[in-house]
């Protein structure tokens, strides 16, 4: 046992310092199976003090540290490189609900708490935590914060940055910043909290958070609506917003090609329309009470959409079972994509008003380079976030498609750049997009990011090779 491992075992106990290949296996491969690395050890601290001790030891030994929560990153952000030098810092033992304040509408949690547990704890206190993700049964709050997760309810409640009041963070040298404040107003300096949220573990290790809670919605109204294209969907979005205000919780868009893929691969998905439309939106309203009134608002908005020629067909859920069936269609997209085969995936955002034009232009551009390519487009239309995925032409050799995938990604991201959008809306940069950062960020912006990284992590030990590799080369 080398000195580093011995010191870590002395603090955490040998049972929480995993060195065998078998014990490390669940931690060194990402959940999509795209990235595989190697680690010197996987450590499992049980408290913030443990995390601080680990960081001090690793700083002394100049050992890289890869923070990891539920290991559900979509961009390889929690997987080490292949050098075998990194310490994986698994936070899953930090899994306590520290406090719930039903009057102040806050919940204070450890970073390793699984998202579903936070939702359940809020519900037991008569409150509501709105972040909802497909991986909510396994992703952790620390990971949600590190990637600034969004999900389907961003339209009403915002991303994790908007849902967070305070943080506790262990720095690269082992010092602990206690910013676990529940204040909603504090104008006493820089917003350090916002600096760590979305930093993908490259500036510090988040160990705790104070999150916002909300009144629990008891009334919901959902509709599955056929539209002709993204332009009609955007016009309908404006109509629903005018009619329903902040009751609008979700407005999810799917193209007809996307719906066909779901129906092909997801056995329990049932389209509540007479035929597969050119495109569709899933609309959800929520409020504290009066479900009949909420449904009437939605019906009135859809009637206005029909009159304006925006709505081709619509089904309104009559109960929770039907609403759940609508959401099963939307939730089946990722699973259907995996079953269909390898896709070139893009998680992009742009001004909402630019989305319809982007889809039309990007579709045409990729088809010029790759005739027969199949765009599978879905996402959170109301907040400007699309998942623009490209499947190979029917019968195309996977290797041939993989060879042109980088060119297709460049085309898609160039179109995003022309609209002053982002190449990562909610999945993070991780390893997947790190080489593109110099192409997509202004030199001054990269310089400032580099300076912040050097200030907080001068040795470049925190999650090296993620987000911006130049920041680790000092």
Automatic annotation (TrEMBL):
Q: Write the signal peptide boundaries.
A: none
Q: Tell me the ranges covered by the FAD-binding PCMH-type domain, including all copies.
A: 35-216
Provide one Gene Ontology biological process annotation.
respiratory electron transport chain
Cofactor dependency: FAD
Q: Which UniProt keywords apply?
A: FAD, Flavoprotein
Q: Which GO terms describe its molecular function?
A: catalytic activity; FAD binding
Supply the Gene3D superfamilies for this chain. 3.30.465.10, 3.30.70.2190, 3.30.70.2740, Uridine Diphospho-n-acetylenolpyruvylglucosamine Reductase, domain 2, Vanillyl-alcohol Oxidase, Chain A, domain 4
The record's similarity note reads: Belongs to the FAD-binding oxidoreductase/transferase type 4 family.
Per the record, the domain of life is Bacteria
Pfam families, per this entry? Answer: FAD-oxidase_C, FAD_binding_4
Spell out the protein name for this chain: FAD/FMN-containing dehydrogenase
Organism, scientific name: Bosea thiooxidans
């Amino acid at each position: 046992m080398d000195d580093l491992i011995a010191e870590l075992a002395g603090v955490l106990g040998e049972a929480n310092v995993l060195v065998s290949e078998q014990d490390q296996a669940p931690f060194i491969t990402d959940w999509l199976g795209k990235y595989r690395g190697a680690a010197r050890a996987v450590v499992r601290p049980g408290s913030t003090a443990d995390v601080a001790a680990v960081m001090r030891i690793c700083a002394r030994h100049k050992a890289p540290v890869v923070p990891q929560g539920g290991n559900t990153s979509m961009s390889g952000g929690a997987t080490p490189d292949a050098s075998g030098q990194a310490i994986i810092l698994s936070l899953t033992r930090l899994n306590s609900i520290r406090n719930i304040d039903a009057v102040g509408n806050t919940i204070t949690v450890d970073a390793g708490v699984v998202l579903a547990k936070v939702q359940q704890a809020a519900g037991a206190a008569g409150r509501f935590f709105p972040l909802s993700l497909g991986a909510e049964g396994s992703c952790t709050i620390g990971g949600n914060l590190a990637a600034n997760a969004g999900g389907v309810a961003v339209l009403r409640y915002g991303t994790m940055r908007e849902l967070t009041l305070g943080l506790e963070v262990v720095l690269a040298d082992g010092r602990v910043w206690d910013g676990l404040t529940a204040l909603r107003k504090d104008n006493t300096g820089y917003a350090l909290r916002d600096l760590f949220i979305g930093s993908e573990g490259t500036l510090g290790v988040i160990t705790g958070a104070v999150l916002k809670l909300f009144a629990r919605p008891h009334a919901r109204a959902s509709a599955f609506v056929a539209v002709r294209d993204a332009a009609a969907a955007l016009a309908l979005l404006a109509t629903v917003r005018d009619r329903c205000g902040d009751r609008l919780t979700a407005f999810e868009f799917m193209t007809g090609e996307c719906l066909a893929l779901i129906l092909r691969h997801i056995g329990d998905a049932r389209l509540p329309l007479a035929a597969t439309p050119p495109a569709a939106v899933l609309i959800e309203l929520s409020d504290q009470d009066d479900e009949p009134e909420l449904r009437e608002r939605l019906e009135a908005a859809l009637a206005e959409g029909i009159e304006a020629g925006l709505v081709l067909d619509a089904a309104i859920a009559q109960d929770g079972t039907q609403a759940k069936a609508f959401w099963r269609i939307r939730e089946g997209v990722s699973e259907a994509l995996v079953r269909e085969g390898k896709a070139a995936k893009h998680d992009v955002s742009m001004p909402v008003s630019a989305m319809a034009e982007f889809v039309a232009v990007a579709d045409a551009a990729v088809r010029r380079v790759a005739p027969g390519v199949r765009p599978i487009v879905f996402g959170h239309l109301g907040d400007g976030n699309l998942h623009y995925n490209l499947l190979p032409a029917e019968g195309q050799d996977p290797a041939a498609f993989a060879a042109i995938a980088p060119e297709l990604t460049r085309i898609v991201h160039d179109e995003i750049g022309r609209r002053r959008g982002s190449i990562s809306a909610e999945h993070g940069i991780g390893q997947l997009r790190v080489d593109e950062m110099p192409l997509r960020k202004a030199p001054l912006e990269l310089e400032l990011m580099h300076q912040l990284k050097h200030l907080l992590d001068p040795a470049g030990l925190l999650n090296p090779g993620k987000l911006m590799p130049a920041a680790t080369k000092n």
